Amino acid sequence: MRFLETFALGPTIDSAFSLFVAFILGTLVGAEREYRQRSAGLRTNTLVAVGAAAFVDLAQRIAGDAESVRVISYVVSGIGFLGAGVIMKDGANVRGLNTAATLWCSAAIGACAGSDMMAEAVLVTLFVLAGNTLLRPLVARIERAPVDEATMEARFELRAMTDPEHLAAVRRALILRLNAANYPVGDIEVTERGDDVMEVTAVLVSTAVVVAELERVTSEIAALPGVTDASWERSTLE
């Protein structure tokens, strides 16, 4: 039996200790996520930590430290696919980024444990728990702070609806009026919205704007001949 040839009590105990440490530390991280009712909770974070520890420990026992380093790089990229599964886009909002980052950190904990770096595994666990708990009051305070529209950087788009006859003039007016207001246009898009209805969209270069000035430019565009509607919208930069 191949098992009798490869079995060694000392290395097996070492592997068991690595997996045990990964299990305990992954459970600590997962318990905090489960308490917060996150999609990736107790079992997921524990399994990620144990799995990463098992792969790294296996590579280390078979081929040594050099091979375990290569396996760690595979673990990092593999966890990226798992993290993508918990990220969901809901309209303009993206949810699950923190959960995916926590899974990534759980894999780091397991990789440390699998490499027999127990102190480092504990340190990573403490920092992950601190990031998910101690920083919450700071995040809440920042989110409650009033937003200064003049300093906030975002993606701004100004749209105008017109007919094909006035398309060129409206397009030119959009660029000229925005440049005159010191809001350079990064891109200009023309979309056909139906019979004799064209939409011209001016995308501003990433910048901060004064809302009153953008409203003024929009009003001027709306008053142009052939323009049936003009509006602008803002989306936060990712």
UniProtKB/TrEMBL annotation:
Keyword Cell inner membrane, does the record have it? yes
Which keywords annotate this record?
Answer: Cell inner membrane, Cell membrane, Membrane, Transmembrane, Transmembrane helix
Protein name in UniProt:
Protein MgtC
What is the topology of this protein in the membrane according to its UniProt annotation? Answer: Multi-pass membrane protein
Q: Which residues form a coiled coil?
A: none
Q: What job does this protein perform? A: Virulence factor required for growth in low Mg(2+) medium and for intramacrophage survival. May be involved in regulating membrane potential by activating Na(+)/K(+)-ATPase.
The family annotation for this protein states: Belongs to the MgtC/SapB family.
Gene source species:
Kaistia hirudinis
PANTHER family cross-referenced by the UniProt entry? PROTEIN MGTC
Record's subcellular location: Cell inner membrane; Cell membrane
Report domain MgtC/SapB/SrpB/YhiD N-terminal positions. 19-139
Transmembrane spans: 7-28
Question: Listed GO cellular component terms?
Answer: plasma membrane
Residues annotated as domain MgtC-like C-terminal: 156-232
